[in-house]
């Protein structure tokens, strides 16, 4: 009784004081009194209504960039894979998170949040506080601190160790002029990786020129690559520099290099060895200073064995090989990329998504992703186009993701296990280890969650 009377007395005094100074001014002053922390508030639709000076400094977004926007635009943390949970559970207490700043760099924080409810008990918004995790060093964003950590690198994002190794190799090789061969399926991000190498190299001030060798016709390919002089052939009404000279002083990205005809491979090898190109119809070679990054989805060694690619050119291009695994081999990245694309679509409006239905997430994890990251982006675009409301449902996914499991479903499920374990870890962290709430969040029963925790050693 005494405690209740004390609470009522404090509440009355606080209400009277807030009427005098204004609730908005009081909350803003309180938020700005902790400059080392990010303090922000959201309304019932999770749009930002308060953004402290500490939030600007810690997260890199100005208040005018985020006010009125969904909090997912600026609060880009790994736990966003399975949703925030404040509205459902009311509180988050000192949970460690890995968050991406506006510039893509990574910082480790601890998150505390409280939901606010109206008189009817409905969610009316919340207040969140993020403080630096003093027990963990900040990460510049390109070199991973350990397996399972989400790393952003020049537009690419991954928690997969193989991708982390690729990022590290890129950073190291960028400081040299060594030729790089990137191998990976269509849609895995080969051109993004090539652009990252260029951006981190001493050639960053020069041009980056990309050409798809498979898209060039055999008759025009030599002219496209090396240029031509006026009158070299019918239609050559003026001199043309060619792609090599366009890339002079910078980086040339040769995508699908395995598609080059054998006769053109010999000319390409000569250009790489002599560092000079002779235009079609010309007699004098012109010096070119170009760093080559090539890419292919095929094995060049197999092409060499089949007599369709020159071995000497392969060795010239493959000084540093980098392999990008397909999305089906790194399923832990599916939720991470999914939420990244959702945030991008949320920012574009008008729909704002803050959750994915459990059966929709299961379908996404079980899919084979033949189109890799590009296909996943297209799936998100499809869902935003055909659906409405704050949750992506299974019936909003493309038809191929709604079909019943095929004969290979067991194998797909086995490949999905690392992602499932990661989702369980994230749910347990977000709910402070509460098994019942974590199970509800994942859309499974408590006994199922116990079995899966035992299976994965969580």
How is this structure best described in words?
The protein has 458 residues and is of the alpha/beta class. The chain is 42% helix and 18% strand. The protein is built from 19 helices and 17 strands. It has helices at 2-21, 23-32, 53-59, 63-66, 86-89, 161-173, 190-199, 218-226, 243-246, 262-274, 300-305, 311-317, 333-348, 358-366, 372-386, 399-402, 409-430, 435-442, 446-456, and strands at residues 38-43, 48-51, 76-77, 91-100, 106-117, 123-132, 151-153, 156-158, 180-184, 208-212, 251-255, 276-277, 286-287, 291-296, 320-324, 355-356, 391-392. The strands form five sheets. It has a six-stranded antiparallel beta sheet. A hairpin with a 2-residue loop joins strand 7 (151-153) and strand 8. Helix 13 crosses helix 15 (372-386) and helix 18 (435-442) packs across helix 19 (446-456). The chain is elongated and about 95 Å long. It starts with a helix and ends with a helix. Mean pLDDT is 79; it is low at 136-147 and 406-416.
Question: What's this model, at a glance?
Answer:
The protein has helices spanning 2-21, 23-32, 53-59, 63-66, 86-89, 161-173, 190-199, 218-226, 243-246, 262-274, 300-305, 311-317, 333-348, 358-366, 372-386, 399-402, 409-430, 435-442, 446-456, and strands spanning 38-43, 48-51, 76-77, 91-100, 106-117, 123-132, 151-153, 156-158, 180-184, 208-212, 251-255, 276-277, 286-287, 291-296, 320-324, 355-356, 391-392. By secondary structure, it is of the alpha/beta class.
